[in-house]
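Example complex used in Figure S2.
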Amino acid sequence: MTDAPKPPPGPAESRAIELLRLVGSQTPAISSRFTDDLVARARAQRAVAGSLTAIGGLVAAIADALMGAVRTSRRDRRA
Amino acid sequence: MSPAPSSAAEALEDAELVRRTERGELSAFEQLVDRHRPVVIRVAARIAGSNEAEDVSQDAFLRAFHRLDQFRGDAPFRSWLLRITHNAALDHLARRRPEPVDPDALDASEPSTERPPADRLEVRERIERLELKLRGLAPQHRVVLVLRDAEGLSYDEIAEITDTPLGSVKGRLHRARLEFIDMLRANTFDWELPDDRRTQASAGTG
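Predicted assembly (285 residues):
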């Protein structure tokens, strides 16, 4: 641990820390649907990412096939 | 302050939940969210403002969700998640127009529509005034005060979250506290409120 001992804070610093701890003691209220909404967004984004990956794979496969066809065609013409 | 989920058992559970989420189990992600939501909300609120806390937290969790493969497990999941939250909150602040803080408004408290007990109301209003003061600090100073003094994180964890050398964290914290103290002195309302001991003592003599 690197939190080495150091001189205790002065009264002003102690008071500031005390007030900041008070701030940290309260969690702001949020929507009761926070987690549900978040998981729904995560699910939707994952589905979109999956679709894009699939489309990307399809496009790559088509490009490969086209390149292969072009190469074969050139070879045939040379022959 | 919430207990730090830094025990070995919880860290193991976090790692297991991360693995399950990566395998497609969204219920595992839901558990991660439920476990870390309070600290993420608090940090987002104190850096970006309470009104923005929900949006920033959603953004942070979604960023984490899509980057789970980058979580190596050499640091606690909470530190990794708070690093993402810190970055999301700062990005949010950068996108937003700078919000001038009126020093005269530091004493202002919004009228409450609810009627909780007087002491709870007083604490809540004091926290609102302190949050307003925090918003007047430079974001870098605000971040270290929130992580160290409000959330009680270690210097090591703050260095990890803010991607800052340890020595810089300590120096920044010192300067941030001085700036915050100056701000409190400029507005003596909270600074000079009697503490509990003095209140009890005066009640005892009355």
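Chain B is about 70% helix and 0% strand. The CA atoms of residues 105 and 132 of chain B lie 9 Å apart.
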